[in-house]
Amino acid sequence: MKKFITIIVALLTIQSASAWSKAIHAGIAAIADANLTEQTKESIRQALDGRNIVYSAHWMYDMEKTKGFEQTKNWRSVAVAKNNKPLNPKKSLHHKEDIVRRAQGLEALAAAIRAIESEKLSKEELANNIRYIVTIVGDLHCPTHYIYPEALELRKMSFTYNKKQSYVSYWEHTSVAGTFNWKSNEFVHQLNRKSAEQIAAITKGSITNWVTKNAAEYREIYSLLENGTTFSQKDFRNWQNKIYPISTEQVAIAGYRLAAILNGLFDSNVPNVKIK
Amino acid sequence: MKKLNLLLLFAVAFSCTAMAWDNRGHSTIAYIAERHLTPRAKANIESYIGGRSIVYYAAWMDFNRSTPPMDVTRDWHVDYWTNEHRTDANGNPQPPCSVSQIKRIVSDMSDFRTLSDSLVSINIKYLVHLVGDMHCPVHIDFPTSRPMKVTMEKKPVKVHAMWDAYVLNSKHNGTSPMQLAEEFDILSAEQIAKVQSGHPDQWHLETVEISKKVISMLPENKKVTYDNYLNEAIKYAEDRITVAGYRLAAILNSIFDK
Amino acid sequence: MKRLILAITITLIAASTNLCFGWGRDAHAAIAYIAERHLTPTAKANIEKCIDGHSIVYYASWLDNHRAEQKSWGKLAHVAHYDVATCEPIGKPYKQMKSTINKLKKYRELPDSALKVSIYHFVHSFGDYHCPGHVAFYDCSGEKPKRLRTSSYDFYLKTKKTRMQYHKLWDSGIVQMGQPGWGYMDWGHALDSSISQEYIDSVTAGSLKDWMRDIATKTQKEYRIYEKVPQKDKDAADNELSVVDGDMMNEFYEIAAKQILIGGLRMAKVINEIFGE
Fold first, then answer.
1. Residue B92 is assigned to a structural domain of this protein
2. Per-residue pLDDT at C92
3. Which of A137, A223, B95, B240 could form a disulfide with B100 if both were Cys (CB 3.0 to 4.6 A apart)?
4. ipTM above 0.95, yes or no
5. If you classify domain C2-275 with CATH, what class do you get?
6. Average pLDDT of each block of 10 consecutive residues along chain A (276 residues)?
7. If we measure between CA atoms, which residue out of A233, A238, A262, A14 comes closest to residue A138?
8. Is the pLDDT of residue B203 over 90?
9. Tell me, what CATH number does A96's domain have?
């Protein structure tokens, strides 16, 4: 019995590296869903057998072990150069570091968008490409999904609070959940509050512009922690208070941008978001 | 995969209790039902449960199954396969439990205004829960499936426990029941009417067939993965929850829309 | 079996510190969300303007999270004090809340930072005061009020293997145990579906003092949450501690549900009166 409980507690405290939690992916999709035009919603509903995009928010992860979907594991992050522009896949695909080679998120997103734009997809292909877009746009707003090849050591940063923890995992699992227990519809209630001007500013430019801008901003998160810090309970709470406004803001931005991409693709009255 | 392991461990922990759906599943069923109650039925129901939503009581029977006098309801959650009647201490065959309870309550409540408030209130709590339970595949207690175990992530787990605690949550553990209802409740009016037609006995037989199906779908080597079982099982779970919601609405409307 | 489930859950509560289990958060968010559901459109717009367009729910646990950042924030009370003989609120917690509400009444004149902290204090501590676990009784018959051993901080409980402060059970366990998998919107929806205006009027009648007296009286006479567990303190041996069982949790959970609704309705009343014009 004791051993059993210990195992559960241990498992809960293990911080494995993955991505935004399911709740965050669902939250991003729910914010996007709330910003889709009626025409987009209807087209997506038809493509997804009556479902909305929230239902598929985490789908790419759910499918990672399914035959034929193994390559999606490489579609979750993006590698950027020192000037924060995305690395050319010709370079990144031959990089000596595996983590850089696997950072093909932007390419996968672009491919999914182009595939939908081609209007030559079967029903299943269309549905899958919508789902890819939903998951990947979420991931491209998770700061730790930006790979800086010249500074890979940043990914090894850690701190101690009760036990040693990876900073990357903290961002992915706890940067929001450490402060809010929101479910997907609650992300909408809390974060879908931007004015039309603010949304226009967030969605301005191309996807590559967004990625470049994100890459520059996300470098800053590594200056929020002195590597190896040991926190007291009080210091840890105060430190988390600096993180959650940043992480929740990225969730909101991802939601608006996802809506912009989908509205561009499915509503003839909305201009497409350009890839480059 | 951390989440999978964790849920699996909870599943193992819960495996001796017949829980059918967990709180998230039951709450989603109640939400879906609520979306299809007539305004009059909803108002009548809520007047008996203190102005609360039926969602509040979706899993109430699970939380209150051990203490007298509620312990009499302990076995109401599970049904037996039609060919395998269980017998009571005197050797008399027992009918399917949740189905017979549902039928009894529906009949008792045909003129609910003649009953005491507390009886109506508790019958609402029973119906909200049992209609969910009777649609859960593993809550049909097959003699062959009862002890059946599978392996998930190298850990052994009972099939029943896997369904109770894991199948739905393996996809939806970041989503609240309110949102799940919105995502699941997508059938057209005609489709809903078709789902709601029939009788609890027929619905029970349908659950029996689906139970056989989800058991037969298990991989031969009993090593369950998303690819060979879960992705498909999740669809069944979602479908059963949605169907249960619509039928719960039909039952409640038939009693309270007057 | 039930014991086992309970043991696991309680162990998790006891073990969780930075984990995403802040169960106190759910209750606070639920109270603020129920309040929000009862705000007039004007009051909602006005108070949200003061907090950068956020919902009051966003700040429901701000005081818990930020209290260590500034001394003055740390001094704001989360637990209310009462005279055990009369259940009248006494001392700083009541004074602070009254002063905050009075400040909010002049919100148009307050500097931005003071206004924000007043709102954060109100939407959090007002919720805390509605939790029976945040009621502390004092003997006021002498010169100085003397705290009695009747607060949830004084008692310890256990499951099969874990000891825990009774307070932690109220702060962290009850709401989440009651409805696992729910968010605050589920709580709001479920508790506040079609309550009558009569009920709303009855629980929101009176002043802050009346409401606090009501909470203390209910805690002492109706909920009796301190009598329901053997009163053993930190130093008691393991075998003397009372075991949390499922029935106790069910009973406490129902109390919590009632208080969450009442707290939300009263919070709405205060905000509507102040920000509704």
1. no
2. 96
3. B95
4. no
5. mainly alpha
6. 37 45 93 98 95 92 86 95 93 91 96 96 96 97 96 96 94 92 94 97 98 97 96 94 96 98 97 96
7. A262
8. yes
9. 1.10.575.10
Q: Is A242 on the interface with C (CB under 8 A)?
A: no
> Using CB atoms, which residue from C189, C194, C253 is nearest to B55?
C189
Identity of residue C115: L
Residue B91 has pLDDT above 80, yes or no: no
> Contacts of residue A11 in chain C, CB cutoff 8 Å?
none
B226 to chain A: which residues are within 8 Å by CB? 62-63, 65-66
Residue A55, domain extent:
2-266
Using a CB-CB cut-off of 8 Å, the residues of chain C touching A13 are 15, 19
- φ, ψ of residue B150 to 5 degrees: the values are -125, 175
Q: What is the C-alpha separation between C96 and B148, in angstroms, rounded?
A: 61
Segment B35-87, tens digit of pLDDT: 999 999 999 999 999 999 999 999 999 888 877 888 878 778 877 655 555 66
**Could you give the number of structural domains in chain A?**
1
Q: What would the mean pLDDT of C105-130 be, rounded to a whole number?
A: 96
Q: Is residue A119 part of a domain?
A: yes
Does A34 lie at the interface with C, CB-CB under 8 angstroms?
Answer: no
How do B223-224 and B149-152 pair as beta strands?
Answer: parallel
- Chain C adjacent subunits, 3+ CB pairs under 8 A: A, B
Give pLDDT, residue B144.
Answer: 65
Strand segments (E) across chain C? 80-83, 89-90, 135-139, 146-147, 156-158, 163-165, 242-243
**Is A109 contained in some domain?**
yes
**To probe the interface with B, which of A22, A44, A169 has the most B CB atoms within 10 Å?**
A22
Domain containing residue B155: CATH number: 1.10.575.10
Query: Is B127 contained in some domain?
Result: yes
DSSP β-bridge partners for residue C137: C82
Task: Give contacts of B3 with chain A, Cβ < 8 Å.
Answer: 22
Confirm whether B93 is domain-assigned. no
Q: Which of residues 58-77 of B touch C (CB under 8 A)?
A: 59, 63-64, 66-67
How many Å apart are CA C244 and CA C249, to the nearest integer? 7
Average pLDDT (B188-204) is 94
Give residue B94's pLDDT band: very low, low, confident or very high (50, 70, 90): low
Written as six digits, the tokens of C246 are 């499922």
Instruction: Identify whether B96 is part of a domain.
Output: no
Tell whether the model's pLDDT for residue B13 goes beyond 70: no
C160 closest CB neighbour out of A1, A8, A13: A1
Helices of type H across chain A: 2-13, 22-34, 38-47, 59-62, 89-92, 98-101, 105-118, 123-139, 167-169, 184-191, 196-203, 207-219, 233-266
CA of C26 vs chain B CAs: smallest distance (Å): 13
| Min Cα–Cα distance to chain C from A274, Å | 31
Q: CA-to-CA distance for A143 and A214, rounded, in angstroms?
A: 8
